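User: Please predict the structure of the protein below. I'd like the answer in structure-token form so I can feed it into my own downstream comparison script.

Assistant: Understood. Taking the following sequence of 249 residues as input:
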Amino acid sequence: MIITFAHYKGGTGKTTSCISVAGHLAKQNKKVLVVDLDPQGNATSGLGIDKKTLDKTMYDVMEEKKQMREIILATKICNLHIAPSNQNLEKVNLRAYKRKADALILKKTLGDIQDYYDFVLIDTPPIHSHFIINGIAAADKVFVVLDPGIFALEGLETLQESFGEFFKKLGLNFNIAGVLITRTSKSFFPWRKNYSQEIKKHIENNFNKKVFMIPYSEHIYQTHVKGIPISHYKPGSKLSKAYESVSNK
């Protein structure tokens, strides 16, 4: 199963969600690969890998210089591996998408290792459409990660409409399996304390998508510092339990 976490907006919690769900799947004795498709490399460092030491990364894969199996690293978490990234990924030659193959670079290379893993989780960047397109094209399921801000619904509509039409033209599926609304317990709008619930209800009623509510937690900073997911750092926390529910779906 290949699952991509996507949104073209930054700061929604895609990386945290990706590695948190990966951690829970690994705890369930599933073999899990996280693919870091973001030049910031936050999923890489978030799983305890020093980005400065890397000589083979997703840059080499996306430039079709190396196969995925050649760059994969073990993490300190049992059953959890990472296809790492760093700022070199910014140097990838962008594609004009005149060919369907431009959208299938990642999917093609994942075919060589997919039988080894029970789950492949892909973390995509904001803005960089080349990586978002490849991440979505490779996926069996896409989770859209939203913050509870005022433009959350607009972002979901734009993602579904613009990318949906693009994938339709390429003859590819764009399957949004669910939506994660992050930081739900920290109100962005004190005068609308139930705003996250309003978003959840709207998505369920108008988009017919499963919605997961992910609470705000101060533990997230420490998980990034220590390089382990919340599933292993604070397994009994509300945040961990919320991501566990996502992993079970």
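That's the full token string. The longest strand covers residues 141-146.
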